[in-house]
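Consider a concrete sample entry:
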Amino acid sequence: MTDLQSRYALDAAALRHFTDHGFVRLPGVLDAGTIAAYEPEITGKVIELNTQHLPLEQRDTYGKAFLQVTNLWRHSDLVRAFVFSRRLARIAAELLGVAAVRLYHDQALYKEPGGGFTPWHADQYYWPLATDRTVTAWIPLQDTPAEMGPLAFAAGSHRFEYGRDLPISDESERALQRALAERDFPVVAHPYRLGEVSYHLGWTFHHAAPNRSDLPRRVMTVIYMDAGITVARPVNDNQWADLRAWLPGAEVGTVPDTPLNPVLYGDAG
């Protein structure tokens, strides 16, 4: 199995792609044996902790997009070992060009069979953080063909400031689909091979198609931030909620060095 502590060798092309396009897809970050060792526990915790029990047809667009369960690492030592992987965190630090990264939070995103589309959005709309040195690792736990709804990116959109005030919604889907097309941002939507992991910046716009297969699309994500980042004053209600939930006790203008936000790679100084 892949050693979750070992280094993944990023090449210059991957680093350049991330800088230019706001995301990168990396092959062979994990192997089949490693995923097989952790996926049952992650899936078991999603089933145990999931609070969404409405039938798909009774949910709103966000509810149809996926089952979302956060901070699984707090409920399982095995999941904690996965989320705290030095290998995954070091990739995040090297892509961001920072000496160290700390955890913002993890979240499982399971798109059920028949689950709907994930609207266009940028994650950092939700995060009360002072800089853009944030990145999400998107880790499929199976081969993810087109019919399962793999993550798709608008290449270069991390520099596009329109739409940064939009929460994920039907409105963000309509407005961003139009705006991104008008500006000719290429949409990169490809299947994921087992073991492939993508990383995208907090301001990179992305979405996903519905799951048209008869199997759940099982994905684990880990969100990293520069270990020296500081808390910004929230500018919307969602950021106030995130401050309370994911950065408990952290004050505006301070580094969020809380028990929920440990350094996962490097020396925070």
